[in-house]
Amino acid sequence: MDKQRDFVLRTIEERGVKFVRLWFTDVVGTLKSVAIAPAEVEGAFTEGIGFDGSAIEGLTRSYESDLLANPDPTTFQILPWRGEIDPTARMFCDITTPDGQPAVADPRYVLKRTLAKAGDAGFTFYTHPEIEFYLLKSSRFGPDGPEPVDSAGYFDNVPGGTAHDFRRRSVRMLEDLGISVEYSHHEGGPGQNEIDLRYADALTTADNIQTFRTVVKEVAIEQGVYATFMPKPLSDQPGSGMHTHMSLFEGDVNAFYEAGAQYQLSRIGRHFIAGLLKHANEISAVTNQFVNSYKRLWGGDEAPSYVCWGHNNRSALVRVPMYKPNKGQSSRVEYRALDSAANPYLAYALMLAAGLKGIEEEYELPGEAEDNVWSLTPGERRALGFAPLPSSLEHALEYLEESELVAETLGEQMFNYVLLNKRREWEEYRSQVTPFELRRNLEML
């Protein structure tokens, strides 16, 4: 760590960095930032930077507000969108109390704690997210809703189009930040795009997702458009998911791979999937944390609505992708409920905790979904045991409130905050009189 700190201090001097932004995340997943001068960085490494935690969503109770942001030197990067005028860098922070203890409501710490539990069981957790988002002409919208930048569809090539230039610029910027991109393409909705990040350990991935969102927003501003990660911004178009591929490794060996097994999926992999299925509804208020999230889950267009798994079945909640012969290291499972607005630290912590619980308790994996789950009748789904995901945030909170797994993983303070914060969102939503009601009822009643 001392070598890494020395590298940061040397790079700041050599590159003429004028500001260093210290980044951390609140409980909802909003990125927070404080800029310090280069002369303050060494002190930040040794003593941290103090701030009022009670002013940040869910981070502390008001009577214990003093917290310290401690920069992680391994996350140091120059921000490419700042250019050569006043070069600016960033580091992610771990949040601690004044006596040096981890802040219990720091989302990054929640994930690190869960990863440590996996480490005690001999596992390293890797993730690979496919992040969808919409490009709109503006954040303002009229009676017809937001206006996308184009009318293109899935994998469409739009010569000279905004999205094409946007993706090229974004990918270049991400690569400059050391974030490897696997694919980028136009998605199914007008103005909808997808950029897939390469596999990394889950903590690095979560940091990368937070950086990714910032890059996408910055490039959009630069190009005169607006980017949104809202799960379902357009009522008649697909929502934006963050399908995440996951695997556990024991050293250099993929614990999900077993040669000769069905789909090359090991017993550990099967138990992991069973854990995801069993606890899916309990973790839903975090993996899908907004009222709008449930418009995506129940709006069709390949969003999963039922708790089931399948081999290469895109209508299932958990998918086991087609395996490549002689490539056992690529064995993985894909969780498809997660949306692009989730807090990645908390979502990955809970998905990992659910999978680990399945391994610890040796949950039995139910039969797979072989057909298109959406095309089945309600009776057929019931007969096959495919229970629905929560239909609303309120429904998801009912599961969350009773969940020992979520309470244990998040910790008491964060668990209570999430519950109260999301109940408040539901109450505010439920009290609204919507345009739908006015159009439907005002003249008729």
UniProtKB/TrEMBL annotation:
Gene3D superfamilies: Glutamine synthetase, N-terminal domain (3.10.20.70), Glutamine synthetase/guanido kinase, catalytic domain (3.30.590.10). Keywords: ATP-binding, Ligase, Magnesium, Metal-binding, Nucleotide-binding. Its cofactor is Mg(2+). One of its GO terms (molecular function) is glutamine synthetase activity. It comes from the Bacteria. Belongs to the glutamine synthetase family. This is Type I glutamate--ammonia ligase. The gene is glnA.
